[in-house]
TrEMBL record:
Domain Fe2OG dioxygenase span(s) in chain numbering: 245-345
Organism: Grimontia celer
Protein's recorded name: PKHD-type hydroxylase YbiX
GO molecular function, one term: antioxidant activity
InterPro entries, per the entry: AhpC/TSA, Oxoglu/Fe-dep_dioxygenase_dom, Pro_4_hyd_alph, Pro_4_hyd_alph_FE2OG_OXY, Thioredoxin-like_sf
Database matches in Pfam families: 2OG-FeII_Oxy_3 (PF13640), AhpC-TSA (PF00578)
Cofactor: L-ascorbate
Disordered, as annotated region: 195-214
Residues spanning the membrane: none
Keywords: Dioxygenase, Iron, Metal-binding, Oxidoreductase, Vitamin C
Domain of life: Bacteria
Length: 365
């Protein structure tokens, strides 16, 4: 099986451990996970790597990290290896190497290739680091800690206000790709965009800067569109499926938008599927391409209060097109975002039927 790539969800599995005959991998979500395929702990490289992680056990527990060492050697089956350690340090027994196979951690001869996957709180791959004869023990640990230190801390629990049914997914676009999209916009300048209304039986684009003030640039470059689609397909759609039990098969528009502070860029409360030409839309996606360079611009869902939602740079905010939502004015700087709509095959039929009511339409994807 192919190795899960950066940003993709790690495959779920069940296996045994000395402490749990039926360990369910998906139950440990909510913390950063260090998942190390060791092959055999009796090898010098892997044993010293495990010992190095043991020295940081208190740190792992305090910072909500978890270390899972995966052995495929039946001689490592004794609980004694990990018996004095907390849940932050756990041994998994993969004697048939089925888990290693799911992660693409086997060589052509069917042997385990020692390596460490770092997973985020949603069990998506953040990094993959090989354990080699030149990089093991404390050296390997330092590489893992460098990655972990670059991730935002897991927030402590608190009593929540009434939340909108909104999904925030970090790390959909990597920083370099965000800059590529921003550069694409800036080289072309964008143009003022409107919003859709029903007029005389037709869905038409209208302009009213008091209601919406935003400039858009449609991505025409086929390679860049394919790069956007690949990241959404493998990094975002699995999270939508998990959260909403919805299979996305279509995407509408490849659009880089700019809310500019000089003109107080904004989009007052609206819904995205209230006309015949937009009735097929199921989910709106707002992928922030930058944060920190502007003030304002938050998303708000008035039906659920005045809480403000901001995805991290490269992260997505996903919500039903039926929800009333607003992009607050940008006070200074410029907010850039990638703004597609998502739907499925059934909705594609609705879109085809309603094309007769739409003045202009994009090809379906």
């Amino acid at each position: 099986m192919n190795k899960p790539r950066i940003g993709e969800p790690a495959p779920w599995f069940e296996c045994q451990s000395p402490k749990n005959p039926r360990f369910r991998f998906h139950t440990i979500a909510g913390r950063y996970i260090v998942l190390s395929f060791l092959g055999s702990v009796r090898m010098e490289e892997t044993r010293k790597t495990v010992d190095a992680f043991f020295t940081f056990e208190d740190t792992f527990s305090a910072l909500s990290y978890g270390f899972l060492g995966v052995t495929s050697d039946p001689r490592d089956g004794s609980e004694a290896l990990f018996e004095d350690h907390t849940f932050a340090m756990y041994l998994l027994q993969d004697f048939d190497m089925s888990v290693a196979a799911k992660f693409g951690a086997l060589d052509e001869a069917g042997r385990v290739k020692a390596q460490t996957f770092i997973l985020d709180e949603r069990l998506r791959v953040v990094a993959n680091i090989a354990i080699t004869s030149k990089s093991y023990g404390e050296t390997h640990l330092s590489k893992v800690l460098e990655v972990l230190s670059s991730l935002p801390p897991i927030k402590k629990g608190r009593v929540s206000d009434v939340p909108a049914p909104v999904l925030i997914v970090p790390r959909v676009f990597e920083p370099e790709f965000c800059q590529t999209l921003i550069k694409y916009y800036e080289e072309r300048g964008g143009k003022q965009s409107g919003f859709m209304q029903e007029r005389e039986g037709k869905t038409v684009e209208v302009h009213n800067r008091a209601h919406k003030h935003r400039s858009d640039e449609t991505i025409q470059d086929a390679d860049l569109r394919a790069a956007c689609l690949m990241r959404i397909r493998y990094r975002l759609l699995p999270e939508i499926k998990k959260a909403f039990q919805f299979d996305v098969t279509r995407i509408e528009r490849y659009l880089v938008a700019c809310y500019d502070g000089q003109s107080a860029g904004h989009f007052r409360p609206h819904r995205d599927n209230t006309t015949k030409g937009t009735a097929h839309r199921k989910f709106a996606v707002s992928i922030n391409l930058n944060t920190g360079e502007y003030e304002g611009g938050e998303l708000c869902f008035p039906e659920f209060g005045q809480q403000k939602y901001v995805a991290p740079a490269g992260g997505a905010c996903v919500f039903s097109c039926s929800l009333l939502h607003e992009a607050k004015p940008v006070i200074s700087g410029s907010r850039y975002a990638f703004l597609p709509f998502l739907y499925d095959d059934i909705s594609a039929d609705i879109r085809r039927e309603n094309l007769q009511f739409l003045e202009n339409s994009e090809p379906q994807q």
